[in-house]
Amino acid sequence: MAGIVPPPPPPATPAPPKPDEKVDYFNLPCPIPYEEIHREALTERSDPIVKAEWTLKHSVIGLSVVIHIQGVSLKPELFEGMRFDFTKGLNQKFSLSHSVFMGPTEIPSQSTETIKIPTSHYEFGANYIDPKLMLFGRILTDGRLNARVKCDLTENLILKANAQLTSEPHMSHGMVNFDFKTGSDYRTQLQLGNGALFGASYIQSVTPQLALGGEVFWAGQHRKSGIGYAARYNTDKMVATGQVASTGMVALSYVQKVSEKVSLATDFMYNYMSRDVTASFGYDYILRQCRLRGKFDSNGCAAAFLEERLNMGLNFILSAEIDHWKKDYKFGFGLTVGE
């Protein structure tokens, strides 16, 4: 009896194939604005409106959450020198910010060597954040004043405006953007700016993952006009975008979510007129108490940006950038107090 081999188990019943999900083309999702087509790869986290929108959508913001919302930015907020940022919330909607920066600033030069001069400035800011109205103001010791506004006029109409005022002649500028969500699966934008700048864009969801769009613009001050096209394909794990314009610009980007803590990104920039080509590769890694971002590009430049959470509301920042071809080396450190 001990030598009897037991019969093999019956073969497992294969799982029935999943039925193909039918796409309801009359109920496609509304695409993101045309101007934010590359936001996962190229949007800076320091943009106050972008940061405020994420904060409103996620009441508990942590380092492990921000990466999945914003993706991998190939434009981390690199700096050289020392900076200190302090944000004090007066209530749930209104806050004040103070920022001190000390470090060198590059000045234009005809030579190949980088010329830097030591500078320092203080910046005071006021922020009002509400689901339907966002106001941001910044004033620097050199006299520059920056203002940003985002207002939901109706459920389908959003007003965005930004302006910079300075004492230097012909350096002040402003722009107003109207975002019309005229349909459930498409949106249009109208832009007006100083210098007789006019622009319009349209983007349409073709499938649940694919959106196509186009834009036109006219710069009256420079007597230039242009037209552009863009495509965006996204899933739960990746985002791929492409954009071309009559100005000669070609931009491609790709973001891949490898795991819950690691994401990778790459982009390709080509200017047909100047024949300039740049390719970049970036990474974003989330640890328990820190976030590490970095990039390498085809110009021989390597950069890294580290945010270490020392305590609730207290972050330590390290920034480093090496340009091997220009022999330019930058290093910065700072503290951020407040959320």
Could you explain how this protein is built, in words?
This protein has 339 residues and is mainly β. The protein has helices spanning 39-42, 48-57, 63-70, and strands at 81-89, 94-107, 115-130, 133-140, 145-152, 157-165, 173-180, 186-193, 197-205, 210-219, 224-234, 238-245, 249-257, 262-271, 276-286, 290-297, 301-311, 314-323, 328-337. It has a 19-stranded mixed barrel. A hairpin with a 4-residue loop joins strand 1 and strand 2. The chain is globular. It starts with 38 loop residues before the first helix and ends with a strand. Residues 58-70 have low confidence and may be disordered.
Strand composition percent: over 45%
Helix content: under 10%
Average per-residue pLDDT, rounded, comes to 85
Total beta-strand segments: 19
Element-by-element helix/strand order: HHHEEEEEEEEEEEEEEEEEEE
**Any idea what the radius of gyration is?**
24 Å
| Spans of at least 5 consecutive residues with low confidence | 58-70
Morphology call: globular
Give the helix/strand class: mainly beta
List the helices and strands and how they pair.
Blueprint: H1 39-42, H2 48-57, H3 63-70, E1 81-89, E2 94-107, E3 115-130, E4 133-140, E5 145-152, E6 157-165, E7 173-180, E8 186-193, E9 197-205, E10 210-219, E11 224-234, E12 238-245, E13 249-257, E14 262-271, E15 276-286, E16 290-297, E17 301-311, E18 314-323, E19 328-337
Parallel strand pairs: 1-19
Antiparallel strand pairs: 1-2, 2-3, 3-4, 4-5, 5-6, 6-7, 7-8, 8-9, 9-10, 10-11, 11-12, 12-13, 13-14, 14-15, 15-16, 16-17, 17-18, 18-19
